[in-house]
Design a protein that fits this description.
Blueprint lengths: L2 H30 L7 H27 L5 E3 H15 L6 E7 L4 E3 H21 L7 E9 L3 E8 L16 H13 L2 E7 L2 E9 L13
Parallel strand pairs: 2-4
Antiparallel strand pairs: 1-3, 4-5, 5-7, 6-7
């Protein structure tokens, strides 16, 4: 790797670690506003969530380092590999089953891939914590489809859905706020739907302005 590429990689990693610190600080502040005592399960969920964020960022940067000169990324393959890495790192194979429907042509810029990866980690950890309170394995469907205007990413779980009266535009903890913020930064349209059959996220990204040459698959 050239000096310039190494410098760029270090800069990207530093930026993502800064984002990670901000996300963990938000979690810290939320805990500080909560009850004086946390149950064992609540404490474990907080630690698990932090581990998921670290595992996701670590995997993303391994992929980017292995393909340092690529300008674009096949986001479908990257997300499946990312989910597998997080599930494996946290030993959650017994908690989650994933089916995929990935179409060709789902390429995004490197900077976009970083934000999308953070969104996916939040969706994944939210499903693991809340989809099935009884501990039943979660069925999650991941899809990526090119559209006339860009790319549509879909994430569906078969859990219990959101609480009654939950406002998807305003409510939620650190995870939901992070998802909404990153979607805005991407210029993407975010749709969240919930019923007794589960929770669905639809992320519609505008067409990438960067050239599609030089993309790579992360599978």
């Amino acid at each position: 790797m050239s000096v310039d590429l190494a410098r760029e990689a270090d800069h990207r990693i530093a930026n993502q670690l800064t984002v990670l610190v901000q996300m963990l600080r938000s979690q810290y502040l939320q805990v500080g506003r909560g009850p004086d005592m946390l149950s064992r399960d609540e404490a474990c969920d907080i630690i698990l969530d932090a581990m998921g964020k670290v595992a996701g960022i670590a995997h993303l940067h391994r992929v980017l380092a292995d393909h340092a000169q690529a300008e674009t990324i096949d986001i479908g393959d990257l997300l499946i590999a990312l989910i597998r890495e997080v599930v494996s790192s946290l030993a959650l194979h017994h908690r989650l089953r994933v089916t995929q429907k990935l179409s060709a042509g789902c390429t995004v810029a490197r900077d976009e891939a970083q934000k999308i990866s953070l969104i996916v980690v939040e969706i994944l950890m939210n499903a693991i914590k809340y989809a099935h309170p009884t501990g039943v394995p979660i069925e999650m469907r991941v899809a990526c489809t090119p559209t006339n205007d860009g790319i549509m990413l879909e994430f569906d779980d078969d859990g219990v859905g959101l609480p009654e009266g939950f406002n998807v535009h305003l409510d939620g903890g650190v995870g939901f706020k992070t998802i909404r913020t990153l979607a805005r930064e991407l210029g993407a349209t975010l749709q969240i739907e919930s019923d007794y059959l589960g929770l669905s996220f639809r992320l519609s990204l505008p067409r990438m302005s960067a050239a599609t040459a030089g993309s790579f698959s992360a599978r």
